[in-house]
Amino acid sequence: MPTPSEFEIADFGGDTDDVTNSQGSSLYKTMTLEWSKPILWRRGHRAPDNPVEDPCVYAILRSHGNMTDGRRIEYIGLTRRPRARFANHATGRRVVKKYGEVHLVYAPVPVSGRNWETNQKRALEEIEHLLIWATWRHLVENERKLYTLPGMGQVRGNAWHIYNVGFPSELHMPKEIIYPWMLVR
Q: How far apart are the C-alpha atoms of 146 and 34, rounded to whole Å?
């Protein structure tokens, strides 16, 4: 699809906090993802031990001498149980077998509230979909979720304002994601 031209962003006010419901609460859920420093995942070795214990989204990065753009995000995923996930990660092992260095970065997703377990699962899914959607052209290992956005399944999606903090700038991860927003002509 060509880049949209002659469009402008619909005027919702100066910030997502200005978009509120009748009670004055923001309709956008705000999430700051604080990404870890890259952890080396060596070929022939198990995944890095216990990088985090909290539910998180993560990215598997790879670099090798023939890549013109340095390190690249090869896979974005989510897990509610990192120990179990990284110990048994078929896609991760497939990426590690390729030529070059592989690193793992992760960002905990803190979710609380009355139905925290349901909310956490849903938040992880939606955030993962948005990260995949925002970086799709660089991903080579995300087969299933490349063309899915929150709200395209059985459960409607939420509005999100996501800040990515600490992610290496050369890796093409946006600093902010606002979903949904509207372009008008």
A: 23
